[in-house]
Amino acid sequence: KAGVTQTPRYLIKTRGQQVTLSCSPISGHRSVSWYQQTPGQGLQFLFEYFSETQRNKGNFPGRFSGRQFSNSRSEMNVSTLELGDSALYLCASSLDPGNEKLFFGSGTQLSVL
Amino acid sequence: QKEVEQNSGPLSVPEGAIASLNCTYSDRVSQSFFWYRQYSGKSPELIMSIYSNGDKEDGRFTAQLNKASQYVSLLIRDSQPSDSATYLCAVNMDNQGGKLIFGQGTELSVKP
Questions:
Q1: What is the pLDDT of residues B52-79, one digit of tens each?
Q2: Given B88, B98, B103, which is nearest A92 (Cβ)?
Q3: Which of A42, A90, A97 shows the shortest C-beta gap to B43?
Q4: Which residues contact B57 (CB under 8 A, 6 or more apart)?
């Protein structure tokens, strides 16, 4: 069974641009969560999606948004990029929202110059 | 005050020793606790989950939970160099599904 797939693996953007990251969950998993990982802040929760609806949201500005499609695939978007947005963005999937066992993808390493 | 706190380490133990990793959390009503292992340059991998007070064993790993003290720990017996990684404690506060609060992680180094 394939794991969580995230694309692209690496991204380099400049300040002010926007970026879209993609995540395909494990087959049969319907819940997708997004996390930001930085050396200083560690792993921080961004948001969670289930049935194309955002269920939870972390303490990030509105520049961070996401969506989920009917096939459970998810995208997250960051607009008006700032230098501080440079981080590893991790997607995690689980069977459903009640299942807390998360399986992480390899992540997208975003560098903002 | 951080919601989930771990000793940042690095924690260095000799091969074959017991490694003890500790975590405290601030929300008394938390019900679910997890340990993830993250190798350098890789994504976190779930290794243990615990929901009830006491010990839970899985192979060389034992998770311990004390809700009264708001404390959860991970013991690794017979530590191997391949156990060298960062161990992340995660807590599901408010029982909100995929929203886990992670500690900063403890870097473990097992010396041959």
A1: 999 999 999 999 999 999 999 999 999 9
A2: B98
A3: A90
A4: none
Please list, in sequence order, all residues whose beta carbon lies within 8 angstroms of the beta carbon of residue A96, skipping any fewer than 6 positions away: A30, A31, A50, B97
Helices first, then strands: H and E counts in chain A = 0, 11
- In this complex, the residue of B45, B99, B101 whose CB is nearest that of residue A33 is B99
* pLDDT of residue B95 exceeding 90: no
Q: In whole angstroms, what separates CA A109 from the centre of its chain?
A: 11
Q: What is the mean pLDDT of residues A74-88?
A: 97
User: What is the Cα–Cα distance from A77 to B96, expressed in whole angstroms?
Assistant: 23
* Residue A5 neighbours by CB distance under 10 Å: 15
Q: Do B96 and A55 touch (CB under 8 A)?
A: yes
- Cβ-based contacts of B90 with chain A (< 8 Å): 43
Token digits for A83?
């230098």
Q: Which residues of chain A are within 8 Å of residue B98 when distances are taken between CB atoms?
A: 31-33, 48, 55-56, 92, 94, 97, 100, 102
A91: closest chain B residue by CA? B43
Among residues B16, B26, B33, the alpha carbon closest in space to that of B100 is found at: B33
Q: What is the 3-state secondary structure (H, E, C) of B23-84?
A: EEECCCCCCEEEEEEECCCCCCEEEEEECCCEEEEECCEEEEEECCCCEEEEEECCCCHHHC
